[in-house]
Amino acid sequence: MGGAIDHIHGIEPAAPDLEVPEGMAPGAPRSGPIFTYTAWPSLCTAYLAATGISAALHVRLTTGHGQLVETSLLQAAMTLTMGKWQRVENPFATGYRMWITDARAPKGHFRCADDRWVHHWVPNPMFVLSSADGDQLVSRRGITNVRHDPDRVGNDPENIVVLAHYQPEMAAAMARFPSTDWVRVAREYGVPLQQVRTPEEGLADQALFDEGVVIDLDDPEYGPLRQVGIVYRLSETPGRVQGPASAPGTHTAEVRAELARDAEVRRATPAATGKRSGVAPKHPLAGVVVLDLGFAVAGPFGTQILADLGATVIKVNARRDPWWHCTHIAMGANRGKRSIGIDLKTSDGMSTLHRLVQQADVVHMNIRASAARRLGVDEESMRAVNPSIIYCHTRGFEDGPRSDSPANDQTGNALAGTEYEDGGCADGGAPFWSLTSMGDTGNGFLSAIGVIQALYHRARTGVAQRVDTSILNAAMLTTSYAATTHDGAGLARPRLDPMQTGIAAGYAVYPTADAWLCIAVLTDAHWKGLFSVVPDLAVDERFVTAEGRARADGELRAQLAAVLATRAAADWYAVLDRAGVPCEISSERFAEEFFDDPAMRASGRTVTYDHPELGRFQHSGLAIDFSETPGVVQGPPPLVGEHTREVLAEFGFVAAEIATLLASDAVFETLSVDG
């Protein structure tokens, strides 16, 4: 009951006595932690490593030498939870808490008449009930902007009662019509809704193939395969898939020969290596100016990554933005920035933006391309003002049939197959959207990586370029473990059980006498260690080999569950850890204790700053460590328009100009959700 913000602050959740309708709460109908198919911390660690390496290469252009770049699974977990692992002095500030992270809250999954699931987020009762009010599914009206929809359920925690009231009616209405009809009507109405697909169905999407996000290649073992291809684009230096996955050791001799040749070249020309000797910047992206025109999470999270690397990020806000910027989710995507309030629908407001663009390095946004053109912030318009700009556009879907469909993290992950896999749907489970999902944040990472690489290219060649990616692309990268053969059949892979406890007996969570324990017995050495602790398993011939364990997985799970239930989690952890078996106790209090851990504070894993409305704000620290040019947390998330005068002055506006712009409402100063 409740969400992380409630737990960390010791707050009683809204409507504690609420009777939750059957099927409303997400996840398997049991107590305890959820085991997702997607290894979210591992995926996020890969993103962090790629970001750090790209930034270090950018620095090397100045210094001529490299540096050590490090990250960890813990830092990845911190990054995944930045929108909810927060401890603030005033958690009751207007708009800060939301119903979205409440464990009881519906996540918008509905089964349709064709037995297919859809993900509709944020659930809109009026859209669902009015569209289904008849013998045919018809859009009763449309909206131009989901944020202005009068029927949208608000963010306040108490609105979980509203959702609980409407959930049974919405489920019944959804069940009357097929999923394809709901997708069509949702597009007409203007709300996000898409089918929940398998990863294999995602690979069969022609629009993604046309864009190069899905590719065909010849695999030496399986023959023709369809796999995920390039998930972010650089207009002048596009990536390319260089070939299929190689068998271990295939290129050993070739690589050794290449290294030997490189070493010989370095010995022959020792001066070439350290040719550049510029002073290292204080931070990897120090001096880079970024204009953030984004909204919600995907765009702003990407620019927050750039801010943590030392870039100067100016958040360009509109008057409508305070309702979102006050939320804990927005607080996890906007730290280290300064906010300027500009009305871009006025000529003076647009002229003000143009003067900022003239002095910026990057323009970054995540609104739909058609809206960007209408507003005049599309690439052509921005490049006319500054031809050297790096223009980054992050989208919801592909440049294709869904370009103008409303999109978000949830619908992107539905289409790519992560929700199908994380819910154990192959064995009868229901789709599951994880609060650590990397649709929005993965999109943000891809955009940040692309921007850094575009800056690197511009520094070397003087050529600017466009960077683009999408939420769907990030979700496709998440499911890139999947591949299909020429006939569309998927390659065999492990599956998550519908109760979301694990992928196999040795890779799962188990209840012990007092808590849940996660084990990751993945190698022969791990199994040897487990057998030394539980010798009764070793005498069963079915469990001796990997093949045997796979065939008898159900029985092995049952026996392990029975054994592990006999002792406390701490006891099992002690003996298994000594035996070399990877394991960890699933702590219900980790997030609550995180900010009090002296080791976390000493290592910079947690940081503290002051926020104008939330007071003392404790948050996750830096997620990438650099040996020479460390990142920096530049400050708390800003209020909308908090730094308008300061930013204008820095960009060369004189006092009289600033006064005129404020008087004409072309720009505005601090706005909060309270007015």
Automatic annotation (TrEMBL):
PANTHER family per the UniProt record, alphabetical: ALPHA-METHYLACYL-COA RACEMASE (PTHR48228:SF5), SUCCINYL-COA--D-CITRAMALATE COA-TRANSFERASE (PTHR48228)
Gene Ontology MF, one: catalytic activity
Protein name: Unannotated protein
Pfam families named in the record: CoA_transf_3
InterPro entries: CoA-transferase_III (IPR050509), CoA-Trfase_fam_III (IPR003673), CoA-Trfase_III_dom3_sf (IPR044855), CoA-Trfase_III_dom_1_sf (IPR023606)
